[in-house]
Amino acid sequence: MPESVALDAVDRAIIEHLQGGFPISPQPYAVAATSLGIGEADLLARLQRLLDARVLTRFGPLFQVERMGGVFLLAAMHVPPARWSEVVDLVNSFPEVAHNYQRESAQQCAFNMWFVLASESDAAVATTIRRIEEASGLPVCAFPKLREYFVDMRLAVRA
Amino acid sequence: MRAPAAAGANLSLDAVDRALVIATQGGLPLVPQPYERLAEALGCSAQEVMGRLQSMLERGIIRRIGAVPNHYAIGYTANGMSVWDVPDEQIDEFGGKVGALDFVTHCYHRPRRLPDWPYNLFAMVHGSSRGEVLAKVAIIADLLSEACRAHDVLFSTRILKKTGLRISGSD
Known about the structure:
The complex is a heterodimer.
Chain A: H1 9-17, H2 28-36, H3 40-52, E1 56-63, E2 71-77, H4 84-92, E3 97-105, E4 113-119, H5 122-136, E5 141-143, E6 147-151
Antiparallel strand pairs in A: 2-4, 2-5, 3-4
Chain B: H1 15-24, H2 34-42, H3 46-58, E1 62-69, E2 78-85, H4 91-99, E3 104-109, E4 121-127, H5 130-144, E5 150-162
Antiparallel strand pairs in B: 2-4, 2-5, 3-4
Helix pairs in contact in B: 2-3
C-alpha cells in the first residue's frame, strides 16, 4: 500500500471537487481550473503529480461495466496459509482479475481471499472461475450481485 | 438525500463507443484539449467524442468523469466489508436504508453460501482506522436491530492486485 503523500489545500480541493462533473467541453481543464481558482497549466501539472504519486489511480471516465453488457463478479476463496503466495500469483495471473484483497475478520470468516472478476460475459467469468479452481485445486465461491442498493466511492480527503 | 442506484439494463456499445472506452479507460489525456486529442486518435471529430461521452454518461455507462483517488493515499487506511444476515423478505427495505447511510460506499444483496456464509447483505465502510469503521458498523447494527441475525466485518489486510476495468481491443 502506498504511504500517505503530503497534499496541500489545492491538491485536496482538486481531489474533492473533481471526483465527478469534469466538463465535456473543448477546453475542460481550463473550465475546471477556473472553478478551483487556479490556472489550467497548474491543474494539469498537479493532476500529473497526483497520478505519479499514486494519490489518484486515474483521471477520466469511471465506467459501469454492466451497462456495457459486461460482468463484474465478486468471488472468494479460502487459501491455506502454506499455499498463500503461490495462490496469490496464480489468481493474479488471470487478466480478468481486476482487484484482489486479502481480508480477515474477528470471527475467522470462511474466506481470506476476495477478488473481483471483470469480463465481457457471464460465460467468460464462469470459465475463469473454473480455470482458477482447476489450477489451484481449491474451490472458488461466487457472490453475484442480486441487487445493488448504492454505489458511490466519492470520499473526502483525510490525508 | 442520496438517490438509490438505478437498476441497469444491459446496453451494448457500438464500435466507436467501444473504441472510446478503450482509449479512455486508462484516463483522459492531460492536455488542454483532451477530447480533440482523442478524436485525432480515433479518426473522428472532437464534437463526436464529446457527444458520445455525454450520451454514455446519460445512459449510465459512464458513472462519472473525474479524479479516481487511491483511498489509502487520501487517508482511508481501513476498509471494512461489513456483511449481514437479514431475512430475505426484508432485505430490499434494509438494503435501501443501509445504502442511504453517508459512510457506506457500496451496498449489495448477494447470495448466502451455507453453511460457510450466512450473510446476504454487503456494505463497504471506509475510515481512517479500524475503530472508526467499527463505530460506523455499530450504526448499521442499530439500524438493522433484531432484523439482523448475525454479522461480521472483513478488513482488508493487503491489496494483492488492483488494475480496474480493462476491456480488450481485440474483438
